[in-house]
Structures are given as structure tokens and as C-alpha cells.
Amino acid sequence: MTVLPDGGTLSDDRSVISRVLRHIDDGTTDLSAQTWREPVANYRSAQRLSAELRVFRRQPTVFCPSAALPEPGSYLAREAAGTPLLAVRARDGQVRVFRNACRHRGVQVADGAGCRTAFVCRYHGWTYGLAGELRLVPHEHGFPGLDRDLRGLTPVATVERAGLVFVTQEQPALTDAGLDELDRVLPAGSRLVQTTEQEIEANWKILMEGFLEGYHLRATHRQTFYPIQFDNLNVVEEFGPHRRVAFPYKRIDRMRTAPPDEQSATGVLTYVYHLFPNVAVATFPFSTSVLVHEPLAIDRTRVNNYTLTWGDESDARWQDALKRSLDFQLDGANEDREVAVSIQRGLASGGNEFFEFGRFEGALSHFHRTLRGALETTTR
Description:
Layout: H1 13-26, E1 36-39, H2 41-44, H3 46-58, E2 61-65, E3 74-80, E4 83-89, E5 95-99, E6 113-115, E7 119-120, E8 127-128, E9 134-136, E10 155-161, E11 164-168, E12 191-200, H4 204-209, H5 217-220, E13 235-239, E14 242-248, E15 269-275, E16 279-283, E17 288-297, E18 300-309, H6 316-347, E19 354-357, H7 362-378
Antiparallel strand pairs: 1-19, 2-11, 3-4, 3-6, 4-5, 5-10, 7-8, 8-9, 10-11, 12-18, 13-14, 14-15, 15-16, 16-17, 17-18
Helix pairs in contact: 3-7
């Protein structure tokens, strides 16, 4: 397995395609240097989950794609790492994220998603602008000495990178040299076409692990992904705390005769970017999915799936192909979900003290090694 140093550069499509073709010819795949044993107790401990959520709050994490906030006034409210947050695109075009609580008595000032010119608390009517500023206090004379400049919505650190909105809830933030590698994640002009939310009865780490290896492809996805992809053939790269796994399609063979400037990953492989700790970005021929995994309990996770596309909305053939692709992805995702739930139930059997990740599953080893290091840092 290729291991990049923090801040290293991800390979371009041509290099990844070349590595895939060599693996096909040699009957090989990327291998990690070592195996990893992850204690089952780490999936069952409420104390461990509490510590993991502290990592979430100090790590720059994806809140949503930028396309979920397409114009001034667009907003999205949801919980992240147990914290109610509100993201809004202000009139200056910048995305800002705030703690979703009125500064008077703490009522959440927004729910769901939509577009507004201001946020009005439904309890007493305190009103906030798109930049979080406190604009109106009904009967303000009853609050002598109130300084509006100090009572706007409480912000959290926010940055937009590569079409994604990242938030860091607590300081000091964990360092993340890998974000500079994200310029190629979302195609230019991507727009949001679908948002779904699902609660799954499984630990968040079990769900993340399903994205990070192709060793399960034939056994789990026999009627979906396996007929068009390769069993246990991946290219794995690491960048900072993150990783990218390439899942090639069998049609990648056509790249053998393609001119170098026409060798593109589009249509011949899926990239899965694991953006540490809890986000997977998966590329497909007609869409890209941004999946945010929010732990609700040791055995329950909410998955927010943002689907983006870039084709012509008026092109009927594109829309038909997109629908068929999304239906196909859903079938595969349901298979992964069923396995994850089964793993969660199996935890209670007492049959395993640890999970054994082999050399085919090096991205999982890197994930858990990174998480362990982040946990040690946050407890110092």
C-alpha cells in the first residue's frame, strides 16, 4: 500500500489507472505492511464514544457540501457530534456556522433547511441576521445594558474547501495537513439533487469501515457491485489523517489503449475519500455522494447523504442514467447496511475480543491508528 506523508500529494488519475492495470495483470492488490487488531470493547464503550466525539469537535469535519447552501439566505440546521449547529450563506457569499441557540433563552432558531432573510426565535422574537448579528429585541428597554454586538449567534470556526463546508467546534484544533489535497473531490458546477437521512443500528466506525476495503465485494455485493467491479483489487492512498481508496470497474481495461491525456477516472473507477473521522465522499459516473456519519449512541448512527450531480437538468438521457445509477447505489448501500447491523448484533455474542484487519484492509488499520492518535492528543 502506498503511504503518503502528512501533506503528501495524491496520485493523478493516470497513475492510479496504471497501478490498477498492473494489479489486474499480476493478480495483486495494494497491501499494508502489517495487520491490525481492534478491540471489540472500542465499539461497545460509552466512555470511548464520548472521547471520540471530543475528537469530532476538535477535528475540522465536513458539515455539508457547499451546494447545500447555494445562495444568500440558504441555511441548513442539524446536529454534529451532538451539537445543534446552523449553517447559513450570508449576503457576502460566505458560509458561516453558528451554535443553534438563541442568546436569550436558548431556543433553536432554525430547523431543517431552506432560505430566509433572518432567523426569528419563536419564543420571544429575538431576531438574527444572516451573519449571526442580533438585529431585533422586542421591548428592548426591558434589558438595560444589553450590548447587541456581543449577543449575536455564537459562531464556530468554518472554512469552505473543494465544495465542502468544514467546521471545527472546539479549540485547540487538531492539525490537518491533508485538506490541501481536496481540490479534485467534487466536480466544478456540482449541484445538490437529493438529501436523505437514515438512522442505522450500528456503531459509526462499523459503517465507516465498509467504505474502506474491497475484500468484501464478491461475498456482500454478488448481484450489485461485483459483476461490474473487481473482487479485492484496490489502490489505497493516505493523506494526512485521511485516505482514498480506488475501486476499479472492469471497463477500466479500455484505458490500456487510451491516449495519456484521455485517461480519466470518470466512468472507470469509484474513488472513496474517507475524510477523517466520519465522512465518506464516493464518486460515481453521474453523481457524487457525501455521507456524514453522526454517532447517536454506541449502537446507533444517523447518516446524512448529500447527492450531487453536474449534468444538464434538461437532458432526459442524463436524468434517466442518473436515476438508474442512484437506484443501483441504493441496492449496494442496503447490502452494506444489513452487514453493518449484523456486525453490531454480533458484538453482543462475546465471540470476539478483537477484529482482525488483514493486509488487504490497510485503510482500516490507518483509520484506527489515526483515531487512536487523535484520542491520545485530546486527552493530554
